[in-house]
Automatic annotation (TrEMBL):
TPM domain sequence ranges: 98-178
Organism: Arcobacter ellisii
Keywords: Membrane, Transmembrane, Transmembrane helix
Stretches that traverse the bilayer: 39-58, 64-82
Pfam family, one: TPM_phosphatase
Gene3D superfamilies: 3.10.310.50
Protein's recorded name: Membrane protein
Length: 205
């Protein structure tokens, strides 16, 4: 569990309070990381094997068999290191790559969780991936028509600052509170409003 029960309740309450006055459907999604990065770890291991082989070739005379043995030892050693220190791969990988993986995962979850299938097309997903220090707010068609992306981008930047400080609870609550006025303005609650999506925090494994 990433958030304790009290933290989950605070976020759920904030969503519930907002949806009393707005027809928008908000969903809070949090995950520890957006990928296992096994493929990336494998590529890094192969790179180190070739790099080490290149160094060994010039520093020491080796037979083909000896070189292959060194390559195997290096490959196994690096993979064991990554297995025991899983966050090491994340530290090595470029930020752009990690953010691309997190963004792709966020979009997959928007569809998997049914946010793209609401009748009103007014769903909003607040997505946080902690290890990548990544935040994305994805909105459905009707929200996108009336509220510019610039508003959400500003919100995301402030949210990321809180995630980097490991204060993602405060980031969630601030983002929800900041969204409240503009959502009520453009999407006021309707008499026949139905809550199509859960207000509970969704933690992805």
């Amino acid at each position: 569990m990433i958030l304790n029960e009290k933290e989950q309740e605070l976020i759920s309450k904030e969503i519930e309070n907002l949806e009393r006055f707005s027809s928008a459907e908000l969903v809070a999604v949090i995950t520890q990381k957006s990928s296992n990065y096994k493929y990336a770890g494998l590529l890094i291991s192969i790179f180190f094997v070739f790099f080490s082989s290149f160094i060994l070739y010039f520093l020491k005379e080796l037979s083909i068999l000896e070189l292959l043995q060194y390559q195997l030892l290096i490959f196994v050693g690096i993979n064991l290191l990554f297995e025991n220190y899983k966050k090491l791969v994340l530290k090595i990988l470029p930020q752009n790559y990690k953010h691309q993986k997190a963004s792709l995962y966020a979009k997959e979850q928007f569809n998997n969780l049914g946010l793209n299938r609401t009748k009103t097309k007014q769903a909003i997903m607040f997505f946080v991936s902690l290890d990548e220090k990544y935040v994305e707010i994805i909105t459905d068609k009707e929200i996108s028509k009336k509220i510019p992306d610039e508003f959400w981008q500003q919100l995301v930047q402030e949210f990321i600052d809180d995630v980097k400080k490991e204060d993602f609870l405060n980031g969630y609550l601030k983002a929800l509170k900041t969204s409240k006025a503009i959502l009520i303005q453009h999407f006021p609650i309707q008499e026949n409003d139905k809550n199509e999506l859960s207000n509970e925090v969704i933690e992805l494994k």
